[in-house]
Amino acid sequence: MKKLILISIVTYVLVLNVSGQDQKGFGPVDYYHAKVMDVNNHLDSWYIDENGPFEFIINLSANWWKNSPDVNGWPIWCTAALVDNEYRQGAGAIPGSACSFAILACLKYYVFTGDTSFLSMARRTGNYIIQHDLTPSEFVHYPDFPYAIGITGDINPQGNGHPNEFDSVNPIFHIQPDKGAMLGTALLELYKVTGDPDYLNTCVKIANCLSDNAVAGNDTYSPWPMRVMADNGNSVDGRFSANVSYSCRLFDELLRIGQTGNGKYKSTRDAVWSWLISYVIAWDDGSKWCNFFEDHGGDENNPTQINALETVRYLLEKKNEADQDWFSLAGKIINQVSGRWSVTSLEKDGYVSIGEQEVDLTPYNSHSARYGSILAMFAESGADIAYKDTAYHSLCYSLYSVEDDGYTNTYFSEGGVAWTTDSFGDFLFHYLEAIAAIPEWAASKNYVLKSTSTITKVSYTNKSRVTYSTYDDFGIDKLKLIKKPFSVRVDGANIKSYSWNSADNVLLIDRSTGKNVEITMIDIPGELTIPTLPSNSQIWIYPNPAYGYLILELDQSLSVGSKLEISDFCGRILLQKDLEEGIRHYLDLTHLRKGIYLLRIKNKPDNYLQKIVIQ
Fold it and tell me: pLDDT tens-digit profile of 321-331?
């Protein structure tokens, strides 16, 4: 139940008491935008263009957060649980969940768009955690462990302050082990992308604390309580907390990259997973997925959809690495969520919306988006195609919380607010996951959709070329492209270990020889034969005649500091650019008319001139 007091940076107070869809404060799905229904009377996106049903709207939302002001030198979501449409903060801070969701969403959005500002946003969020949000090193039980709770606007959390500064639910110096694990997984991804050892060191400390303090769970006690005092290890409340998939993921990934920590990661992970199977998933009614939300006491009998669905995500991503029975377990948990937390139905309402938790079944925006993304991933993994249809309409429902300016209102209503979890990272992330699973929901553009590794760098230089790098030198990469690739290179060498699906323009690459991938799409009729470069050549241009695109290869001695000019025979310069360092360059000449041109390479003290033909 989101019972909030919003106290902003300026003198402004807004009180919300929301405990159900029909109560004041939560708006109807068509509050901001008129409902759009398809031919089957199912809810559709409120805006569909050449970019598909989702991209325009999620870009609005992403850029609203991108333009948000810093608070005391840090991103606004680090020090607030919620903001209003003028970026005023309130209700304390929830850096554990808000920052973990933000990091993962920003990294994924960077890969989707190539917008490096989101990579910067992820880094700044991670830096905030390791510089301001960790418990003192001298604490015995949970040293250097992230606080889940802070005070509004305060950049130095101490475990208290949400939902307000006077609430007794979250005492000073307490931590929430599950939120620490969430931040650990996010920081580990950030380490893989950036190579910054400070992120990895923090991940290892988090994992050490978790494995040192884990206990054997049973039907009454989970391996970690929901809340525990960081200094002395005393439990605060919530002896049964089922949000453990992030801990399993953290242990898995650290071990995979060779980090053994205190030596307990494998045994702890296996014991925790066995507990989850026996004492949570085994209950067919889903009643044991208890306790997540920071503004609720841990002793409530309060199962939540997020614990269940994020376990499904773990299963669908890791598959056999998570559990040999991953597919049937995923289906079982999805059925638990559908039966327990569905608020609306596809048959009656035209979409399935998902309630937040047992004590508050209000279908806030992120929860239905999460459900939609999970169902899309399940369909991608081989489940019945009906899951894809249900997923689409649930995702469409959550889009109606986005206003025309990008403000994403968790409550779908005037006077509502944006939680920094539900309306930012825990919203954006799910659409990117869904598009990666079902690429037909994306535009006819070039996208690196996902990888079994981590994408560390991506560039969409023009329509003819995509380059990206990965953390591992092996993996399966999934892309959507505007056309069939002419060549796929890994670490400079052509590979054939890829497949092309012309029905949806999806490329699957099976990498086993490197990290750096280069894909070219040259619009050339017929087969292109590339001649062998003579040993005395310094410049190689092909194809010539060209059909809109040229590949320019330079000798190593010319690969730095060269300038390119293309002119007509009247001397008019039609293209001029500095050539970035690298031997191979791709030139988009589709703006030039058919004819004969002069291509000049300037590299002091030499000039190189060659005639090119565009057909």
Answer: 999 999 999 99
Six-digit token pair at 340? Answer: 């327990």
Q: How far is it, in rounded angstroms, from Cα 488 to Cα 509? A: 9
pLDDT digits (tens, 9 = 90+) for 532-542: 434 445 677 88
Supply 506's token pair. 């999806």
User: pTM, whole model, 2 decimals?
Assistant: 0.86
End-to-end CA distance of the chain, in Å?
65
What would the pLDDT profile of 181-192 be if each residue is shown by its tens digit? 999 999 999 999
**DSSP states along 472-486:** SS-EEEEEE-SS--S
pLDDT of 4 above 80: no
Q: Give Cα 536 distance to the centre of its chain.
A: 48
Q: Which fold has domain 539-614?
A: Immunoglobulin-like (2.60.40)
One-letter amino acid identity for 106?
C
CATH architecture of 2-441: Alpha/alpha barrel (1.50)
- Whole-angstrom distance, CA of residue 14 vs CA of residue 25: 11
Q: Quick one: 233 exposed, middle or buried, by C-beta within 10 A (0-12, 13-18, 19+)?
A: middle
Alpha-carbon distance of 429 to 239, in angstroms, equals: 30
- Give CA separation, 337 vs 178, 326, 366, in Å: 20, 17, 15
Residues ≥6 apart with Cβ < 8 Å to 475: 451, 452, 453, 511
